Amino acid sequence: MNVMTRPQGAAASHVKPSLLIGGTFLTKDIKRARRMCEEVLNLECVEPEKGVLLIREKGHKTGEKLAGQPYWILEAREVEDIAVPQEMLNHWGVAVPSQAAVDEAFEKISAKQKDYGIGRVQKPRFRHGSYALYFVDGDSNWWEIEYRTPDLLYTTLRQKGDQH
Predict the structure, then answer these.
(1) CATH code of the domain in which 60 resides
(2) Domain count of the chain?
(3) What confidence tens digit (pLDDT) does each residue in 89-120 have?
(4) Is residue 10 domain-resident?
(5) What CA–CA distance (Å, rounded) separates 25 from 31?
(6) pTM of the entire structure?
(7) Alpha-carbon Rg of the chain, whole angstroms?
(8) b vs e for 108-133, b when ≥16 Cβ sit within 10 Å of the residue's Cβ?
């Protein structure tokens, strides 16, 4: 069965989205969150209004390699208190091109942990078929830096479709 085929007996969707657009996380310090996203994760940020930060991967501006392609946005919202801290399984992630890039990220993040208000940084290891590290920021948001082999890329898995 390919990805576009609905399993027999499945109901038609009630919502007809044109694009998956984003996710939201909370921060008590928007400047700290922006600095970590830009300097640690190499993401592009813009603050369109006080207390709101929009974050995406770099490369979507006119003339850049991803210009015109769809992208996913993370939205950080500044709050006074975070009532429900995140857990590791509820994390945000970025992909890197190699296992060595994960190891390099671990070394750099560990060395600058206090500068960015980063809490725990887990050593890289193989999990669920990929090589990754996880760390928690100063607001209890967990982040993953992950390398996947070509057969485990999400685009490959989507093309494979439903298997069960």
Answers:
(1) 3.10.180.10
(2) 1
(3) 889 999 899 999 999 999 999 999 999 999 99
(4) no
(5) 14
(6) 0.80
(7) 18
(8) ebeeeeeebebeebeebeeeeebbbb
